[in-house]
TrEMBL record:
PROSITE patterns named among the record's database cross-references: ALDOKETO_REDUCTASE_1, ALDOKETO_REDUCTASE_2, ALDOKETO_REDUCTASE_3
Domain of life: Bacteria
Designated name of the protein: Diketogulonate reductase-like aldo/keto reductase
Gene3D superfamilies: NADP-dependent oxidoreductase domain (3.20.20.100)
Sequence ranges assigned to domain NADP-dependent oxidoreductase in this UniProt record: 29-261
Entry keywords, A to Z: NADP, Oxidoreductase
Coiled coil location: none
InterPro entries in the cross-refs: AKR (IPR020471), AKR5G (IPR044500), Aldo/ket_reductase_CS (IPR018170), NAD(P)_OxRdtase_dom_sf (IPR036812), NADP_OxRdtase_dom (IPR023210)
Matching Pfam families: Aldo_ket_red
Cross-referenced SUPFAM superfamilies: NAD(P)-linked oxidoreductase (SSF51430)
Family the UniProt entry places it in: Belongs to the aldo/keto reductase family.
Organism encoding this protein: Bacillus chungangensis
Amino acid sequence: MVKNLQDTTILHNGVKMPWVGIGVFKVENGEEVINAVKAALKTGYRSIDTAAIYQNEEGVGQAIKESGIPREELFVTTKVWNSEQGYESTLHAFDESLHKLGLDYLDLYLVHWPVVGKYKETWKALETLYKNGRVRAIGVSNFKVHHLKDILADCEIKPMVNQVEFHPLLTQIELRQFCKESNIQLEAWSPLMQGQLLNHELIVKMGQKYNKTPAQIILRWDIQSEVITIPKSVKEQRIIENAQIFDFELDPVDMEQINGLNLDKRIGPDPDHIDF
């Protein structure tokens, strides 16, 4: 059982990745992101997820520096944006991200979206970065089963992580099964459906049963579903609350009830129909 914020899963290359991290999507660079990340680190979070397109890598780097936490205790993820995809441009984008973060290496680098005609070249660049020891693990984001099969057909190194939209209304059963069989760790973005699930009748009711908030119920469901989760918040109280999910366990019946909420409903774009 996952016991605390530092508990990890082991990726297929042996690297340990925390089950829970802080996401900084749409968090403004500067004071807002610095304060959010510092609050998370103070609470005990050790995993931080950003992306080039979020335009807050400098703030994340600043918070890491100011926290005084040894670099090797942290797990930092960023992603290459669609316009930078391709072999050379990805290598350049990686350098840029590393420079903004003020780090010597990354823990996880992801291909942000499967840009048709480009993501395989992008993947080759990630393999190069990995082989050169500049990143400890590499993966993809928003890849469906057919995208993963396409990568797996001729990659040298298979993705360690696939970060996708995942929440009780989008349970991604086929993708989860495929990733499990392929030993690719699934990770959830927007686990709380950008707050839209916090008033869901069943989840509210479950919160009352376990004496937990709806957010805590959903994040606990993620962990018990063996999906890494990175809830985003800028409020210290919420950041602390999101971490209080290790002192209870959802029973199998409740897990099934939440699984049963699936509607294949997305709040983000469908990776097959995104306008790049």
